[in-house]
Amino acid sequence: SDKKARFGEDQDDQTAIFIQNILKFRRDKPTEEIERALDRCGFVLTEDLVLNVLRRHRSDWKPAYVFFTWACKGGGGTGYLPGSDCFNEILDILGKMRGFDEVSQVLDEMSKREGLINEGTYEILLNRYAAAHRVEEAICTFYKRKEFGLELDLVAFQKLLMWLCRYKHVEVAETLFNEKGKEFEQDIKTWNIILNGWCVRANVRESKRFWKDIMASKCKPDQFTYGIFINSLTKKGKLGTALKLFRAMWDQGCNPDVVTCNCMIDALCFKKRIPQALEVFQEMNVRACLPNAATYNSLIKHLCKIRRMEKVYELLDEMEQKGGSCLPNEVTFNCLLKSLKKPEEVPGLLERMEKSRCKMTSDTYNLLLKLYMEWDCEERLRYTWEEMERNGLGPDQPSYTIMIHGFHAKGRIKDFLRYFREMTSKGMIPEPRTEILVNSMNIKWKEDGGQAEKLAKGSDNLTVDLSTDV
């Protein structure tokens, strides 16, 4: 069927959905009972099947961990042992949900088998430790590379700096760069990582300081150095300076790459200078700097905002005709979905998305949930939720946040409570705005318990506990 073609459903998918349901309907049962249920099914475990199941639980670590532990024991007597990909996947899930005690247990298990820990493991650990602001653990992971059987080289050092900078620990990254960088060869990429870190922090003063340091160093700036600095200037609204530097790149023969051109187009569009953005777009074609989907997406996003829909669909047609790196992607269709005014327009756009071989993602599903909530389309809201779950793409924390705030705005307190409790039972941490909402509801209920009972009829306990077992 079309649906199967869209999601690539095969035998592994069907078995994974079956396992997903076993875990879902027994999530509150003891681990031993869940393992016995899995044993009775007699699945033949493979790496692909285990990965499929784990990826369906990216935002629900407890059932994922129960299943993975069961698979590590031989998976119902099949003798199967997970490989590096499965170990890395569970590490990523646990790290994302801040289950760092379990991360340590999985690492201990991996160290018992030679060759399981690889570069993918290393990057996942850096990413999840840095994201959780566990900077010391991230740095220790770098120094443990020899224990893991990995080289302590420049590339590994650059990855450490990159993940620290990604999560705004730029001061730490620059200190490491100054102290440890001397042990490796001078490389402009390492300088670029720190410069980009200051750009991510939108700190123009530090970006300028570090730019001067690069100019005074033995390393010659490349097109990425210029691109990063231009990005930093545009983020702070210094469009004139950015444009001068952009033009200077062409004049000096250090031609901007597509990323830098996209940055200029996006900045010009943001300042509502769309004709000038279109000029840069045309110049790219003349100077053989070929645009990609991100180039078109910048234009489409801003043209949608000012309702230039004829031009938007003209660009979309062009993307589909060019194909390759210009083919419309998730970002393209999400921009178009946001521009829709009524639910009847959704199926046609999703059909076009399918024809472009653009797969649904959790972000697209969450956008549909938000739209259907705003349009008060309960049937489509429920169908989207179920389809997202069936295809292993959620629900995640943003999905629950949409439902919680949407139902609260509609005065549907029972549904608001149900989704909040379900979210926290999965170890998801509420957004600050959700915490504020729940706290205000708790105060209101304490002040007027009788009225609250009428509003939330059928709920077992009106006061909501904000603590989460992560």
Automatic annotation (TrEMBL):
Gene3D superfamilies, per the entry: Tetratricopeptide repeat domain
InterPro entries on file: PPR_rpt, TPR-like_helical_dom_sf
UniProt keyword annotations, A-Z: Repeat
Pfam families: PPR (PF01535), PPR_2 (PF13041), PPR_3 (PF13812)
PPR-type repeats, residues: 187-221, 222-256, 257-291, 292-326, 396-430
NCBIfam families, per the entry: PPR (TIGR00756)
Family indicated by similarity: Belongs to the PPR family. P subfamily.
Record protein name field: Pentatricopeptide repeat-containing protein At3g15200
Species in which this protein is naturally found: Prunus avium
Gene label: LOC110748459
